[in-house]
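Format notes (please read before filing issues)

Several people have asked whether sequences and structure tokens are stored in separate files. They are not. Every record keeps both together, in the order shown below: the sequence lines, then the token lines. Line labels are part of the format and must not be stripped during preprocessing.
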Amino acid sequence: MIRPKELTSLIPENSAVLFPGADSVSVETLLPRPKCIILIDGTWDSAKRLLTNSPTLRGLPRAHLPSKDGAPLFRVRRPPANVPGARSTAEAAADAVEVLDGEAGVDAARALRHAVHEASELQLRFVRMKGADKVPHRTERRGYVPGLYEESQSKREGDGEAVLAKVEDSST
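Then the structure lines:
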């Protein structure tokens, strides 16, 4: 576990936190260009809580990514409805690399998006193979969506493949 004093020493000067909100600016317009973008990995609620409770992170500029249409690649969890363009941490990392590094970041972003898609599909295949009723669900968890794993396989595969193809086409 990283303690707050240790966290401060790990963050380079000219860093920003990637987390949307009323006080965030588009990552494209951050000046000076950040040397380091910090992404908080966790559920939306836990990430927001961490950002709110950390004086170190709260003291950094906040940035958000441009909105994007379409379903997220990581389809195991649904994004919160109140956050337009919400995506998984890995998808956000891919988008940030592409936005900040331009052409130099396209290949890295594409590889990361492909890994996210494959990890999502692998997890969904496991659930379907085992049977959704045999996979333990934390139904008490805030944000639990009943029936998420029970959606038809063809619908999920169609959506995911179309999203991945669209992402790869736009990156070339």
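For reference, the curators noted about this record: Confidence is low (pLDDT under 50) at residues 151-168. Residues 1-64 form one domain.
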